[in-house]
Every structure is written in structure tokens, then in C-alpha cells.
Design a protein that fits this description.
Chain lengths: ~290, ~260
């Protein structure tokens, strides 16, 4: 069987800021996949992305990108990575044309034709200062830059946060187009789980600097379920199935780790599929 | 790396516009100055200074005074282009350091780009000044082209030392502290200047406070002309110092940038 290529691999990566610690995290992103990096604000998503990009120095652990350790020469690895941040980062006085001139003198594979095609497609004026762009336009500009140097991987940190649903959907379409190519990969960090539910193949849950769940999205959604019952019935559910239970005056809601097994064992209880958001909330509550 | 230099120069575009205005001003004022020194009020003032015996001024002193005034005009274009801290301020405000971290440019090249950006602007300033010096040296006998050249190289070297120190302090202190970086650069230069010329600075203070007896005071006054001659004739010493400071600043900035990573 052909081994799955990993474009990103982290092993026991630790970064200690004193008041926050990324605690020996390990996960990998397979080639050709969309990996959703989920966690609430302050969970450690941006720190992890900065570590992958070698923008900050880790305290311990190993990171490989495209099979190469980032300790060797991380600069050349970044030729194949397009990055999109939540905030634009380009100087407000810069126009699309300025950005093109700057980038074509930085990226070996910069394709100005593609860049201007994206600007046109996104209705971004190339001669207007990007400081005058709306937030949606600024994000689109970043995406145009990330897609114009023939990157094989996109790393995006909260690219859809603060955007209206129409622009968010437009962006998700662009990401889908990107991953049509077999060797194209996306690592998409977000706390908006609805976006990831539409797009991701793999998910990595992070909370308080620790990875709490990782795996194939469909398998995770398939396995997990929400068992709803009266609160006095909650104790009847086997502990081995329970990830976390929440008891309220209205009844009990239990996140279970094997929906099929639970359905067989408890045919009288309502067992619903759980969304990524519900799974995340229960896991986070359990950790606390 | 060329892209980052382009970005830095865009950041300093405002300075470049100021540079153009200053340049036009300097050209006009210099021509007016030369004409006035030959035929106008400045010529009359010089003659008057010579006629007043209590001034103890010689013809050379008057000529030197004129030369210093002219040299100061000439140095304005270099001084205007020389503030690299603006590039740091703009990067800090926009959050560009996040983007530079994800670009396929090594930290060595990113730091080098900062130095090359400012030296490119200096080179432009020097070039323009040299053209101006060529014209002025033909129009006036205040200074020869070689003397103008010495003054311009000296000024560019001093500004390079300032910029190299400013870059180092900007890396050391991080974004948002560019004013402190400028202040520390000036202080460092002043401290080095005093340490290297302690005796002369002491004499100067004694002249200013009136503590020096009259004959010695006259000798001390010559120090100013000596300094001016030094700038005209021994510019290579300052140039060497600028090269050494730049290399040291690049090395130290690189060490800091590598430790901070995201801060460039």
C-alpha cells in the first residue's frame, strides 16, 4: 500500500510563553487534504502556525514541512507555501501593482498574470491603496497573493473570521478550487466550525495548548453522537461511551464516542449526529 | 530580497518627496548664496568683518565661514533621506513583520535588505550632492570639487553610522520604540565622539566658559577650522568608520533578528 505523504508533521512540539504553553503537540497533515485546525481564541492555533512557518522558535520537538525539517533551511520551503492571516499585513499605501512588484522580486515562481487575473476576478482595483479596501477585499487580496506563486500548500489563520456569509462562501469556493489539484493541501485554522464542516477532510482540535482530538472529519462526525435523555437516565449510559455529559434542568446531553454501539445498547434514547461545533464544545468542557 | 528593498523604499517615499523639495530649495538657496557672496550682502558683510580689527579674523577665516554655511546647505539632501526608522515604524503599524516571516527570504537577507535600502537612498543623496558640488565648485572659489567631495563623503559616512546604529537599536528594542532607537543612536555617537576627542572637547568647553586665557583661546578657536579641514581632507577615516560600524551593526542585528525571528 502506498504510504500517505505528510506535508506537515509536528512531533512533541513545545513552546512556553510562561502564561501560555503549547504542550508537546503532535499531528500531521496529509498531502492533498484540507485540514481544519479548530480551537477557540487563545487555544494555540496561531502559535502553532507561526511555529510551522518558523516565524517563532520552538522550545522542543520536531517539525517537518514537505518532508524536510524546518531547521535546515525553512526559507526555501516557504516558496511552496501561501499564507493568509486574519489581518492583512500589507502597508496601507500599497496598491495591487506595488504588491506585484514586491512579490515578483521575492518569489521565484511569482506569476503576475495569475495575480492580476485574481485581482480582476475578486473585483479588486490594482491602482487603489489597499488601506482603503474593506475587510473582505483585504482578505481576497491576501488570497490572491497566496495563490499567485504556484504554492502547493495554503496555511490560513482565521481567514473567514469577521466576514459576511456571502464573502465567506466565496472564499470557501476558492479554497475548493485550490484543492482540486491532487498535491495541493490546505491547513485552515478557524473557530468557525461551520466553514470547516463544509471544507475539511481532516480536523485537529486544540485547546489550552494541547491537541485534544485529531482525525478524519467524516469518521469523527460518524463516530460521535449526541445522546439525549432524562437526567435520571444519564447514569445508565456506559462510562466507556461517554466523552462528556451535560446535565441541565431540561435533561441530559451526552457526547458519546460510538454512535452505532450506543444506538444498539440504548434503543430508547435519542441519539443525534453531532456537529463539529458540538463536539468541540463538549471536548473543551471535558478538559476543564 | 530586492522586493523587500522595493518595499522599504516605498515606505520611505514620503522622505523621498521631502528630498525632492529640499533639493530644489538647496539648489535655489545655494545659487543665491553664491551670488550674494560674490556681489551682494554676504560679500559686503565679509568685507566688514575683515575691516573690524577687534574680530581678529583673516581672509581665510571669512572664506571658511562661507564654506561652512555652504556645506551645511549641501548636506541637507543627505540628512533628509537618512531616516530608516520610518521603515520600521511603517512595518510595525501595518503588521508587515508577520508577512515577512512567511516569505521565502532568509533572516540574513531580510536584515541585509534593511541596510541596502538605506544605503541606496544615501547613494542617491550623495550622487545629487556631487552634481550640485560640481556646479558650485565652478561657480564659486569657496571650495574646490575635491573639498566638496570630502565634505559630502564625511556627511554620508556620519549619516551611515547613525543609520547603522538606528537599525541595530530598532532590532534590539523591537517595533514601536523607534524614537528611543534614534535617541540612543545619537547618544552613542556623541559619547564616542567625546571619548575620541576628550582633550579637544575639554578645551572647547573652557573656551565657551571663558576659563581659557586669551592667547590659548585664539589657538583653541583654530580647532573649528581644523575640524572643517578634517571633514574636507580626511573623509576616508569617517568612511572606514562607517564601514566598520555597518558591519558590526549588521552582525549584531542578525544575531538579534535570529533570536526574535518574527520581529523583522
Amino acid at each position: 500500500m502506498e504510504e500517505i505523504k505528510k506535508v506537515i508533521e509536528l512531533k512533541d512540539v513545545t513552546k512556553d510563553y510562561g502564561d501560555f504553553k503549547l504542550n508537546a503537540i503532535s499531528f500531521c497533515v496529509p498531502e492533498g487534504s484540507v485540514c481544519g485546525f479548530i480551537g477557540q481564541n487563545g487555544a494555540g492555533k496561531t502559535t502553532t502556525i507561526n511555529l510551522i512557518l518558523d516565524v517563532i522558535k520552538r522550545d522542543a520537538g520536531e517539525i517537518w514541512v514537505f518532508g524536510e525539517s524546518i531547521d535546515q533551511d525553512s526559507a526555501h520551503l516557504r516558496e511552496n507555501i501561501g499564507v493568509v492571516f486574519a489581518e492583512m499585513g500589507f502597508h496601507e499605501f500599497m496598491t495591487g501593482k506595488d504588491i506585484n512588484t514586491m512579490m515578483k522580486n521575492i518569489y521565484k515562481n511569482w506569476d503576475e498574470e495569475i495575480f492580476f487575473t485574481y485581482l480582476k476576478r475578486f473585483s479588486l482595483p490594482s491602482k487603489k491603496r489597499c488601506g482603503a479596501f474593506s475587510r473582505g477585499m483585504q482578505m481576497k487580496l491576501q488570497i490572491a497573493v497566496a495563490l499567485s506563486h504556484h504554492a502547493k500548500m495554503l496555511i490560513m489563520d482565521e481567514p473567514t473570521s469577521g466576514l459576511d456569509p456571502i464573502v465567506r462562501n466565496e472564499m470557501l469556493d476558492i479554497f475548493r478550487e485550490f484543492v482540486v489539484e491532487e498535491d495541493h493541501t490546505i491547513l485552515l485554522s478557524s473557530h468557525i466550525t461551520a466553514d470547516l464542516e463544509k471544507l475539511a477532510d481532516e480536523v485537529v482540535f486544540i485547546d489550552g495548548g494541547r491537541i485534544i482530538l485529531t482525525g478524519n472529519k467524516d469518521e469523527i462526525l460518524e463516530k460521535h453522537g449526541l445522546l439525549k435523555c432524562r437526567k435520571e437516565d444519564a447514569d445508565k449510559v456506559s462510562e466507556s461511551l461517554i466523552i462528556h455529559k451535560e446535565i441541565s434542568s431540561l435533561g441530559a446531553e451526552i457526547l458519546i464516542n460510538d454512535r452505532r454501539a450506543a444506538a444498539k445498547l440504548y434503543p430508547d434514547f435519542i441519539i443525534e449526529p453531532a456537529s463539529l461545533e458540538q463536539i468541540m464544545l463538549h471536548y473543551v468542557s471535558r478538559e476543564r | 530580497m530586492k522586493g523587500l528593498i522595493y518595499k522599504d523604499i516605498l515606505c520611505l517615499k514620503k522622505q523621498f518627496i521631502n528630498f525632492c523639495f529640499v533639493l530644489i530649495g538647496v539648489v535655489i538657496v545655494s545659487i543665491m548664496y553664491v551670488l550674494s557672496a560674490k556681489y551682494g550682502n554676504l560679500a559686503r558683510a565679509g568685507a566688514q568683518m575683515l575691516s573690524e580689527t577687534e574680530n581678529h579674523l583673516t581672509k581665510i577665516d571669512v572664506k571658511n565661514l562661507g564654506s561652512i554655511a555652504l556645506a551645511l546647505f549641501m548636506l541637507l539632501p543627505i540628512a533628509v533621506v537618512g531616516d530608516i526608522t520610518n521603515a520600521f515604524i511603517q512595518d510595525g503599524t501595518s503588521g508587515f513583520h508577520k508577512i515577512s516571516g512567511m516569505l521565502p527570504v532568509s533572516i540574513e537577507k531580510r536584515v541585509l535588505a534593511r541596510f541596502l535600502s538605506i544605503y541606496a537612498l544615501f547613494a542617491m543623496g550623495v550622487l545629487v550632492d556631487l552634481c550640485l558640488a560640481g556646479i558650485l565648485s565652478v561657480l564659486t572659489d569657496l571650495m574646490t570639487f575635491a573639498e566638496f567631495f570630502g565634505i559630502i563623503i564625511s556627511a554620508a559616512s556620519v549619516m551611515s553610522i547613525f543609520s547603522a546604529l538606528a537599525i541595530f537599536y530598532c532590532f534590539l528594542l523591537g517595533y514601536g520604540k523607534e524614537q528611543y532607537a534614534m535617541l540612543l543612536s545619537i547618544l552613542t555617537m556623541i559619547i564616542f565622539f567625546i571619548l575620541l576627542n576628550f582633550g579637544k572637547v575639554k578645551t572647547l568647553f573652557r573656551i565657551m566658559s571663558g576659563a581659557l586665557p586669551e592667547p590659548e583661546r585664539a589657538d583653541g578657536s583654530l580647532m573649528m577650522w581644523d575640524a572643517f579641514d578634517f571633514l574636507k581632507e580626511k573623509a576616508w577615516i569617517l568612511l572606514m568608520a562607517a564601514v566598520i560600524v555597518s558591519i558590526l551593526s549588521y552582525g549584531s542585528s542578525l544575531v538579534i533578528a535570529k533570536r526574535k525571528r518574527g520581529m523583522i
